[in-house]
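We now fix the convention by which a protein and its fold are recorded. The integers have meaning only within a learned vocabulary of local backbone shapes. A complete example follows; check for yourself that the lines match position by position.
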Amino acid sequence: MAQLKEKLRSDLTTAMKARDEVRVATLRMALSAINTEEVAGESHRELTDDEVVTVLGREQKKRRESAEAFDGAGRTELAERERAEQAVLTDYLPAQLSDEELTSLVAAAIGETGAEGPKQMGQVMKVVQPQVAGRADGRRVSGEVKRQLSGS
């Protein structure tokens, strides 16, 4: 079993004993999403730690988008709940890349591919995505690639 999944389970037990409602609900949701991913497809399989991180990243993104939607609708109490769940998920994800690290990774990928101009953005993204997986939001990565390729 993946170590991260086991850590989620043990932290769920700890949170239940501490009566931490937000953490309990968030960890249950995360474990449910992981289980759903494991049974999807042809046969049941155990996810690796990297795959668990991908699932948690997807769940964190859902929380961020929901919080933005609730803020837009004036539902601040629901937005705060989503942000609290997002913070719990952040504890289990790798540290995010700083702007400087992302800039240097994108510059190296542009040098490696020899891309010149926004039309070759796809080539650069293919090189950068595996390097930043789980450590930077795709929107942030594509924005940086676009910025460097357009020369601004």
Summary: The chain has seven helices and no strands. Helices lie at 3-18, 21-39, 49-72, 76-90, 99-113, 121-132, 138-150.
